[in-house]
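User: Fold both of these, please.

Assistant: Here is the first one.
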Amino acid sequence: MARVTVDKENHLPVDIHYEDRGSGRPVVLIHGWPLSVGQWEFQIPDLLAAGHRVVAYDCRGFGVSAKPRGGYDPDTLAADLHMLLEHLDLREATLVGFSSGACTAVRYLSRFGNQRVSRLALVSAAGPYLRRTDAHPEGFLEDTKLREYQRCLTDDRVSFLHRFATKFFEVARSSAARPVMPQPLHTRVVMLAAAASHRGAIQTLVQAVTTDYRNDLRAITVPTLVVHGEADVVLPVEATGARIAEAVADSRLVRMQGAPHGLIVTRAAEFNRELLAHLEG
């Protein structure tokens, strides 16, 4: 099992687990909350078949990476990614961030620049700023809802994750598509999520909601693909993907009709075609 030390806590190493397969121009996959590298099982084979080197890792607190008490802020998560890219000496890489993983990719580029990165793909992405305040009425998540999520994660984490997995495949009522909820895949998402650190899950969720990434997005200069489901009930496209694409100068927005948050699973073939076209563009 490949691991790299990115930090220390109480004199003990904080290691993150990663997978590194294939050769060619690298593609770095950054999973979303509260999942792990297992979420990419429908993408990795196609990327390898197309001749890419594929690097996927478990963020701290998730999967089989270390689960420290701290370090779940955007800057530290971006620094973890930076240390991984440095460790593997990746160049001309494409970062692919899903959901909250998009936030890590965006903060990485704004903080460390594009010396090692040539392209970016943001999928079902969180951001630019999810929190609704008097100064930011465009946000769609109020503090009361965030506190409810925190309470549910504390009181009965597994039940909350089961409901999250349902929404992962659920489509908005306004969509003409039928709800997509294959039970085996639903169970798979719950299993991936259940491996997450309790503290890491709560802190990462809070950071994703309360951090303003608008300035980070304006700093991005690499060609960027934004893919979002029109029927996403977790992160509605008008409040997230559409605004992200507006903020990034060199971007292309793909709105998948009838697709839920978990489009990398339910619409894997369609998404993979868009991603491969972006990589070859």
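And the second sequence with its predicted structure:
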Amino acid sequence: MGAASAQLVGIVFVSHSEKIATGLVELARQMAPTAQLIAAGGTDSGGIGTSFDKISEAIAVADTGDGVVILCDLGSAILTAETARDFLEESDQYRVRIVDAPLVEGGVAAAVAAETGGDLDAVVAAAQTALQLTSANTFPARDDGAPAGTPRDDSQPVTDSSASAVTSRTVILVNKDGLHARPAAEFVNLASTFSFPITVNGTDARSLLSIMSLGLARGSSVRLASTDPLAGPAIKALADLLESGFGEH
């Protein structure tokens, strides 16, 4: 399969529509600018349908050494993708995963996970988080027991004096559109560089879809927290990013 340069998991978008596949690559590219994102949409003649040759070529281009995740729009696209995978060398087949996940949400989450250097399992897991989120904003319980999204007045990192100490800081979003896709991806990229478990209003700071599901708009109170006592500098860096407004005015 493809020769390695940058070792990142590749993402292939398979759709019956060429425009949908290329549009998804364009969308995901806004949040994952260096990830290997390949469109495989439509038939060989440009019509509606799927193409064994297009998917096979996309897999070859997307694989830079760490494997490929494929997301499909409809059942017959999955069948064509499975056929293309079956025609690979047996030693390569295990590195190509076809993920049952929503094409848009799962694809974007997978792309961000690949962008941050996630391995094949991590990128698959990121895509699958889309199956776990509903269209309604269902917030997980906050790490201090209060409902997620509840404001906290702790603008500097503080350590709670409870049995399981929590280092936290609360900031107010200032950018006009809040944590929409691009700034959310920038935030997740930074959070993924830290080894500490950090939450955003109770949800995983490294999960793009979970953070976007919070619906954090301008003026929202955002609580960053960690049970790791050494997480203070990481929380400060994330808080500074939020307070910067991501260059949006």
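The chain has two domains: 10-132, 158-247.
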